[in-house]
């Protein structure tokens, strides 16, 4: 591992922060903390913590000693100076004289001594940072060091690798007791550069930010060298995993059936198919490895103690589904037994958390992280990938032997650890995956944005790949863009497969793609009419068929929505080639509603009118307005409400339709009120 320290960049950071009124100590603390956070082999998603002891002015203008330590909710990769709130140091040091200190009293005392009471809670390891007198302290969960710290003979191995440079601290839950144990270890041996906490992580310290940071790099490098000397991790020569057709939607359905609470039936997937994750999942020892536990206790709140191990998907999805269901049943029963064994000995009453897995290991496929949304699933998958890399390295030098179940339970159900996950309010379409065709057009883009704004993961399909990507970027970072000609059923099926591979399945489908072909019907070339039917009718049928296959595989219902048109019920001159397939589309909507209500699939259509888009261009608006003797604004607002209907209005209407839990077979106008287009 190489140092990322750069004197010039450190100086620039110090100067930039100085203009914000930030002192040099905190500026350099922020700079080096971000260096650590930028490396996922050191810390992940809020993990690790850093501190600096410095001076600050209190309310009376007196200069006092403070500890600036990472605050809860901050990530080292993006931390800014407020992410290291200042705590009065003297009261923290005095706490070491106490024989006992509860977690609640510790947190309360730390908050009482914040210089800014609006600051976030200081790290749960604040007292450890305080009790060790070094000016700068860094703490990471470096994978290479964890490979050593999770060995049966960890202390002896660490002594051989590091000599007198570090001291070992046997595993103790973070908080007051760990702080005292770490301070005792620090004082037992002069000249220490760091501490290695067995089954937990590594601390480094120094008189300067650079010294502490580069000691961390050196300590991790020594662990890496130890692993390399044993031959390193042997990685298989594998190609990208081929997911058995329909396996992810089936798995998503199995998870839904095990949901404890209503509203938690759907999960978003994030699959990792790297050489290291495949080295783990394709190994015959997978079940043994998976049963051992997490690489560091911080990970258990993200991943639970074990992943669920499933058999490799085969050609017969039904057979695989039965095997996967049995494995899931066993996993849930084991978790319930784990809770029943350890909850009675807890200091306070505990309520069992959701027993479902958060990581799934599948040979030939990879590791899958589960989350309420794509962002959460990514975090879980990142941590799972780190666990795999740590385990493989540990097996190179010996045997991966992490914390036992009792200690893991204490961490998983520790209130201070659970607080890290936050209590964010769920959005209306969280846990849903929405697929939108024709997503590169004005209406399609508005639909994609509307669903993304409500918390859905969005898959954007368009025949123009660049336009699909533009919509995806505007809708959100986790949105998937796919080039797809919806008149080709094979491309449609492929797009649905990619959506399932990315997110696990699909819940809402908006079949929106269309084109307004014009011309007098009696003079229309037959090929033009057929092309219009291909896109405005048969493409909708191809999308609907693919959607129903996924919905039925999942077994948790679904929403199938169509963008029809007022032309279907109120045809206009020169628009027969557009109105005729749209009229057929309304019949298709009713047929799907009739035949798949028993599957829990709700099928509805929207009839927008006069929407500025690729169908209704500026030139067409101008021509129509002129022929009616109206201004363009008056033409566009020519409805009962006297207001123009926009693409955003259509997007919101599709969201509304997706939320109608007991409505199917409906045709909903989005036209501001058009008497001629009202259904009779």
Helix content: 40-55%
* Radius of gyration from the alpha-carbon trace, in angstroms: 30 Å
- Biggest sheet descriptor: 7 strands, mixed
Silhouette: elongated
Report strand order across the widest sheet.
Answer: 3-2-1-4-7-6-5
Structural class: alpha/beta
Strand runs, count: 18
Distance between the termini: 73 Å
Q: Count helical runs.
A: 25
Unreliable residue stretches: 237-242
Strand content: 5-15%
| pLDDT averaged residue by residue | 92
In short:
Helices cover 44% and strands 13% of the residues. The protein is α/β, with parallel strands linked by helices and 680 residues long.
Keywords, separated by commas or semicolons:
680 residues; alpha/beta; seven-stranded mixed sheet; seven-stranded parallel sheet; 25 helices; 18 strands; 13% strand
Describe the model.
This protein has 25 helices and 18 strands. The strands form 3 sheets. A 7-stranded mixed sheet has the order 3-2-1-4-7-6-5, with helices on both faces. Helix 10 (247-257) packs across helix 21 (526-554), helix 11 (275-281) crosses helix 15 (374-397) and helix 21 (526-554) packs parallel to helix 22 (576-596).
Describe the secondary structure blueprint for this structure.
Layout: H1 7-18, H2 24-37, E1 49-57, E2 63-69, E3 86-88, H3 89-94, H4 103-112, H5 126-131, E4 136-140, H6 143-149, H7 154-162, E5 166-169, H8 176-187, E6 194-197, E7 201-206, H9 209-229, H10 247-257, E8 268-272, H11 275-281, H12 286-290, H13 300-303, E9 308-309, H14 317-342, E10 359-362, E11 366-371, H15 374-397, H16 405-412, H17 415-418, E12 433-436, H18 442-453, E13 457-462, H19 465-475, E14 480-483, H20 489-503, E15 508-511, H21 526-554, E16 558-563, H22 576-596, E17 601-608, H23 618-627, H24 632-636, H25 647-658, E18 667-670
Parallel strand pairs: 5-6, 9-10, 12-13, 12-15, 13-14, 15-16, 16-17, 17-18
Antiparallel strand pairs: 1-2, 1-4, 2-3, 4-7, 6-7, 8-11, 10-11
